[in-house]
Amino acid sequence: MGVNSNRVEDFSSQETTLRITTESIVPGMEIHNVCLPPKKTTLQKLKQRLGEIFFPDDPLYRFKNQTWCKKLLLGLQFLFPIFQWGPEYSLRLLRSDIISGLTIASLAIPQGISYAKLANLPPIVGLYSSFVPPLIYSILGSSRHLGVGPVSIASLVMGSMLSETVSPHDEPILYLKLAFTATFFAGLFQASLGFLRLGFVIDFLSKATLVGFMAGAAVIVSLQQLKGLLGIVHFTTKMQFIPVISSVFNHRDEWSWQTIVVGVSFLVFLLTSRHISMKRPKLFWVSAAAPLTSVILSTILVLCFKLKTHKISIIGYLPKGLNPPSANMLSFSGPDLALAIKTGIVTGILSLTEGIAVGRTFAALKNYQVDGNKEMMAIGLMNMAGSCSLCYVTTGSFSRSAVNYNAGAQTAVSNIIMATAVLVTLLFLMPLFYYTPNVILGAIIVTAVIGLIDYQAAYRLWKVDKLDFLACMCSFFGVLFISVPSGLGIAVGVSVFKILLHVTRPNTLIMGNIRGTNVYQCLGRYKETSRVPSFLILAIESPIYFANSTYLQERILRWIREEEDWIKANNEGTLKCVILDMTAVTAIDTSGIDLVCELRKMLEKRSFKLVLANPVGSVMEKLHQSKTLDSFGLNGIYLTVGEAVADISALWKSQP
Amino acid sequence: MGVNSNRVEDFSSQETTLRITTESIVPGMEIHNVCLPPKKTTLQKLKQRLGEIFFPDDPLYRFKNQTWCKKLLLGLQFLFPIFQWGPEYSLRLLRSDIISGLTIASLAIPQGISYAKLANLPPIVGLYSSFVPPLIYSILGSSRHLGVGPVSIASLVMGSMLSETVSPHDEPILYLKLAFTATFFAGLFQASLGFLRLGFVIDFLSKATLVGFMAGAAVIVSLQQLKGLLGIVHFTTKMQFIPVISSVFNHRDEWSWQTIVVGVSFLVFLLTSRHISMKRPKLFWVSAAAPLTSVILSTILVLCFKLKTHKISIIGYLPKGLNPPSANMLSFSGPDLALAIKTGIVTGILSLTEGIAVGRTFAALKNYQVDGNKEMMAIGLMNMAGSCSLCYVTTGSFSRSAVNYNAGAQTAVSNIIMATAVLVTLLFLMPLFYYTPNVILGAIIVTAVIGLIDYQAAYRLWKVDKLDFLACMCSFFGVLFISVPSGLGIAVGVSVFKILLHVTRPNTLIMGNIRGTNVYQCLGRYKETSRVPSFLILAIESPIYFANSTYLQERILRWIREEEDWIKANNEGTLKCVILDMTAVTAIDTSGIDLVCELRKMLEKRSFKLVLANPVGSVMEKLHQSKTLDSFGLNGIYLTVGEAVADISALWKSQP
C-alpha cells in the first residue's frame, strides 16, 4: 500500500508535477501521477472557452507585435480585402480578369433572367441582381474566384415560400415588396451571423442533408419547368410533387407542339454542351457560352417566324436603364412581415451555405484561405445593399465560380468586369430580349438544376454511413412531398438526432492486453489481445452526460455480469477489479459524476475495486471539484491501463 | 521503407490478425498493425446497433439455456413480478408490510385530498387515486419500496395546464373529463415508452433541469397556497409568479385572521416535525404522522368553534363509497383533445421521471435492480386503469416511498395494505372530513413542496458545472415566469445545446512525450512532457461530424501555424509530420472523412506528413469503406502515437 501513497497527497495539494515512484514492484513499469490541469479562475476558463467557441481561427493574430501604423493598415486590409491585393494589381492580372469577367457575364445574363423567373420575379430583377451585389462583393469579399449573382436554390426557395401566401400574378407589387424585404432580412441575418461569429450555424446543414435537399429541389424545379417547356398556361403555384404532376397532366389540352419542339431541341443542345464541358474541363467555355447562344438563336428564330408563332410565349418588354433605388419597397410592418423574415432566414442560410462552400472549394484549389465569418459579412452586406437597389438574394454561385475559375480569374476584378458587361446590357441591349421565348429560360433552368442531382454522392453516403443516407433521403422526400422548409427541418433534425443517439447510446468495449506490450486494445478486434485475469477493462467511448448515465450504468453492470458468467464457465479465478479506460470520456457533467460515484459504491458492496485510467483534464477537474477524487484516492486513478494493472497486481501480491 | 511495407497489404486483404515487424529499427519498439474490426454485413451491424439501443440490459438473458417449462415460469415472473416474490412470502414479511402500509396510509389520506386540490380536482378523487393504482402496481411493479399515489409535481402541472384553458369552477364536468382523458394519455404514453423500450426519453430531463424545475414549481405552489393560508376567496387561476403575487396583495381585504392563525400554527407544527425527521431518520414517523394529526386536530378545532368560525372555509360533504367507473368520462374527440394529450404527455413524463428515479434510489439502497422499461409499463398500465376508475395521474411518490422504506416495508404488499386502509376510509370515514378546514390542506402542500427546493444541489451544480447550473436556472425562471411546459422545454433545450456545443467546438490538445516512456500526454497539463522535434501531435477530443469538421480544419491549421511560429522563434529545426491521436474520435461521418482527406491533401501540398494514431474500430471501418485508408496506406496509420513517432523517425534516418 505504501508503494504510491504519495500519489493521493498530490490530489489535495493540487501540484501539477509528475512524481515517479522509483520503487515500482513490476520491473520496468513506472507509475505516474494523474495531474489536474493548471488551476484557472472561472473567469479565465470562461474567457478561454469563449475564445475557442467564437475565435477558433484567432483572426487577430496578424495584429500581434505590430506598430500602430502597421496595425491601421492591417485593419483596413482586414475589413476591405481589396486593399490587400489592390496595390499589387497589374496589367497582366487585369487581362486574365477581363477574359474571365466577360465569360461569366455571358453566363450571367441568361441565368439572371431565368432565375428571376424561378423566384416569380420580373426578369429585369435578375439582371439588376447581377450588377450591384458583385460590385460590393469585390470590395468586401476575401475569395478571389467567387462569381456572385442569383442562384437557383435560393431563387426557387424564395419563389416557393412567398407564392404559397401571396400570388405573384394577382398582387405583383406586394410580392415584390415581400421579396425585397426578405432579401433585406436574409442579408441582415447573414451579416449578423458573421459579425457575431456564429458561422457554425450553417455547419448544421451537413453535406448529406444538402445532397438530398438539392436533388429534391432540382426534381421539383425541373417538373415545374414543364409549364414553360410544354407551353401550359394554367399551372399550379404549389411546390409539392403531386400537385405539380397533376397540373402537368390535367392540362394536356394546353400542350403546344411548337413550344415543345423548340424547348426540347435547345434542352438537348444545352445538356450536350454541359456534358462536353464536364468531360473536358478545358472546354469550359462550351457550357459557359451555351445559354447565351441559345438565347440569341431562339430569339432570332422567334423573330423570323413571329407572324406564325403566336403559340410560343415570349418575355416581352423589359425596361432600359440602371437599378432604381428600392429602399421604399422594404416594409417592416404589416401581416406578412413574419413570412418575409422566415423566407429571409431560410434563403439566407441556404445561399450562405452555397457561397461559403464554393468559396472554400476554390480557395483550397489555389491554396489560400477564406475567412468564413468575414465572407458571411460580405455576402450579408451585399444582400442588404441589394435589397435597396431592386436586387433579390444573391451569393457565390457554383456554376459561375467554376466558369470564372476555369477562365483564369485572378482577383475579384472579374466580378467588376462582369458587372460592367451587365451594365452595358442594361443600358443598351434590353430591347433585344423582347422576342426571347420563355421556353428557353425553362431549358436553361432545367440544365442548371439537373447538375444538382448528385446520385453518386448519395450512393457514397449509403456505402459509408447509413444514418447520413437517411438524413439525405429525409430531406429529399421532405422537399419533394411536404415543403422546402419542412424538408430541411426534418433533415437537420435527423442529423442532430444522430449526434444525440451517439451520445445517448455510446459504445463500451472490453479491452485486453496486446501480448508483450503495455498496449490495451479491443478484445474482439485484435486477435493477439488476451484478457488479464481478475481484471475487467472497459473503454467508454463517449462523454458521460445526463443523457447516457443511466444507460452506461446498466451496460457496465451487464458487462460485469457477463464477465462473471464467462469466468465461471471457464473456471478462471475471480473478478476482482474493474478498470474504466476514460481516454475517450472527453467531458462529464454532474449526472456523470453521480454515475461514477454510484458505480464505485455498488461495486464496493460486491467487493470489486473500481479504477479509472487516464481521465482527461476537464474530467479530472470536475471529479476534483465534486470531491469524488478523494473517495477514489489511493490506487483509484492511474495514467494508463497498463500502469493500473501492474500496480494493482503488485499490490495484491504484496497483500495476499 | 521496407520495414513495414507488409502493413498496407493487410488493409486490402482485411486480415484482422496482428503482424509484428521483428526488424524494428528503434530497439524495443515493435510496430503493430491497426486492424479493421471483424467484417459484418449491414444487417448484422444493424441488429447489433438496435440491440445496443433498445436492449442494453439484455432483459432476456434469464431465458437462455432453460427448459420450456422453466421458460414459461420465468416469463410469468417477468411479466408479473408478484410471482417472483409471492411464493416466498412469509408471515414475518407480512408483519413488516402491515406496519409500513398503515404508516403510509396515514400519510396518503391527507396527501391525496391535498394534491387533488392542487390539481383543482374534487378531494375525493385524491383518495380514489390512492386505492386502485397501488393495487395494480403491486402486481406489475418490480420495486419493493415504491409508495404509489398522486404526487405534487404532476398534480400541479395538470392543474396549471388544464385550468389555463378550462375553468374548474365554471365547467367542472368538462374539467374532470379532461383530467381523466389526460391521465389516460399519460398512462398510454408511459406504457408505450416502456413497451417500445424508449425509456431514454426521460433521461433528457437531467437532474440539473429537475432541480430547477422542482424549485420553481415549489415556489409557485407555495405562493398559490397563500390563497388558502390567508383565506382569500378571489384568486387568479394563472400559474406565473407575477399574477399570483399581485393576486395576493390585491385582495388584502379578504385576508382572514382566524384562517391565518390556524394556518400558520399548523404550518409551524408540520415544518418542525419535518425538520425533526430530517435530522434523525429514525424518527421518520414524526413527519409521517404529522399530516393526519394536523387534519384530525384542526377538524376537531373547527368542530368545537363551528358556530363562531364561519370565516374558515371547510372541505364540506364528501361522498362515501368505492371508486365508481369513469371510462365514460374519457373523451377522444372535441376541441380540447390536443390539450388533454399535451397535458398527458407532460405529466406522464414528469411522473415517470419521479417514479423511476425513486424506484432506482431505494433499489440501490437495498442492492437490487429495477428494470426501467418494465417500471414504465407498470406505471403506465396503472394510470390507464386509474383513468377508468376516477383516478388521476399517480406514480411512485418520493415522500411516501421514503416513509415506506423507513417503516421497514419488504414487498409491494405494503401498497396493498395502504389501499385497504384507504378502502376503509372511503367506505366508512368520509363524513369525518366534513369539518376539515381547507387551510390545513394548504399547510400540508406547502410542507410537501418546500422539500423540493434543493438549494444545496443548485450550489453544487454551480461549483462543478456552470452549464448544468445554467440549465437549472433556465428551468427555474422559466417555470416561475413563463409556464411549466415552456420552462421544461427551455431547460431541455439548454441541456441538448450543451451536448451539441461540446460536439461543435471540441477540444484539441497538443501532446508531448512523458520522458522515458511511450506515453504521450497533454503538454500544458503534464510538466514532465516534452515536445518531440519535427512532430506536431494533436489529440482530437470528439467524434468528427458535419457539425465540427469546418471548425476542426480551421483549428488544426491554426495549431500548425502556431507550431511553425514557435519553432521559428525557438530555432528548433522544421516541422515535418502532424500526428492526429484519434483515440477519442469515437465516430466519424462522411463530412469527417472529407475533412481527413482534405487535410491530408493540404498538408501534402506544404510537404507535411499526416499520420493517424489509434483510430477506433468504427472509424477504421468508415475510412476503409470510403477508400481513404488506401491514400494513407504506407506509414499513415499507427496503433499508438509512440509507434508512429518511432517508426517515422527511423524512416527519416534511413532515408535522409
What does this structure look like?
2 copies of one chain form a homodimer. By secondary structure, chain A is mainly alpha-helical. Chain A has 3 domains: 2-39 and 505-654, STAS domain (Transcription Regulator spoIIAA), CATH 3.30.750; 43-79, no CATH class; 84-499, no CATH class. Chain A has helices at 6-13, 42-54, 68-79, 82-85, 91-118, 123-129, 132-140, 152-163, 172-195, 207-224, 226-230, 241-250, 257-279, 284-304, 337-365, 372-387, 398-406, 413-429, 438-450, 455-464, 466-481, 484-504, 549-570, 590-605, 617-625, 628-632, 641-654; strands at 147-149, 395-397, 508-514, 520-522, 529-530, 535-540, 577-581, 609-613, 637-638. In chain A, strands 3, 4, 5, 6, 7, 8 and 9 form a 7-stranded mixed sheet that branches. In chain A, strands 1-2 form a two-stranded antiparallel sheet. In chain A, helix 7 packs antiparallel against helix 16. The longest helix of chain A has 29 residues, at 337-365. Chain A is elongated and about 105 Å long. The first copy, chain A, starts with 5 loop residues before the first helix and ends with a helix. At the A-B interface, helix 2, helix 10, helix 20, helix 21 and helix 22 of A face helix 2, helix 10, helix 19, helix 20 and helix 21 of B.
